[in-house]
Amino acid sequence: MSARSQSPSEVVVSPHVSVLLEEAVAALAIKPDGIYVDGTFGRGGHSRKILEQLGADGRLLGLDRDLAAVSAAQSIQDPRFSIHHHHFSELGEVLRAQDIQRVDGVLLDLGISSPQIDEGERGFSFRFDGPLDMRMDQSRGQTAAEFLAEASEQQLTGVIKEYGEERFAKQVARAIVAARTGGDALTTTGQLAKVVAGAIPKIEPGQDPATRTFQALRIFLNQELEELSLVLPQCLDALAPGGRLAVISFHSLEDRIVKRFVRSEQDRDDLPANFPVLAKDLPQPRMMAVGKPIKPSAAEIKRNPRSRSAVLRVAERTGVA
Known about the structure:
Blueprint: H1 21-27, E1 35-38, H2 45-53, E2 59-64, H3 67-73, E3 81-85, H4 91-97, E4 103-109, H5 114-118, H6 144-150, H7 153-164, H8 169-181, H9 189-199, H10 211-221, H11 224-238, E5 239-249, H12 252-266, E6 287-289, H13 298-303, E7 311-317
Parallel strand pairs: 1-2, 1-4, 2-3, 4-5
Antiparallel strand pairs: 5-7, 6-7
């Protein structure tokens, strides 16, 4: 799946390969007449697999904030399927507009898709010299170039450290501000990658020095962690008893949010220690984890190196209100 190294003028786009395709769709335990949500349509790999298992009375709603993904979804001519240009944090709003009270499953494939990485003009990749955009939804929001032009050194340090887990965040932030102050506006990915590379004193083997900074800016600008925190309670509210939530995460920041959310719904004993109450009177779980976290097989990682950090967590809605 990963594109070979190339010059900025030579753009070879890798096809999008859905990660943990079989495992994620199997985790939803598809009912032929059920209603399902693919909260991150991407290029439709998971959606098509779900449609294969749905019967004539089944229904699938696809959501994506990326207009290119919404456009790609038009190729699915199936009356059981509809695509919606929405952030997945707007799940509740979409369901209400469709007059849907409950769904039987929600799938969230987090992170960034291959087309977003491999199309230089989107500004996500340091491998191609393109405009510093980084917005998943190009119809709204601040671009990376706009943010870098006005953010303080302190704010840059915080973003790069928190979202990129970059130990040299302060040095990178200082270098960005210095470049900006010196009259070198950072408007392309190549310019930013060069500044970051010059600020990192110790490079990790096998990893471009700009990796963590680009990740941090992407997560921050697209409010990815906030979006995830907003959608999880909406999934809980939308799921019918026995309905499944399947979430594929690609880094520890995302996975930690999913893990903590499911655990908080499963272990709802928030009473003080030694509080006199019978076990049967404790708040009962509204959601239960299903099995252990699932990771890609060695064969999948070999076919698709970008899947190597993926983790699939599955949870099921109970009948408790």
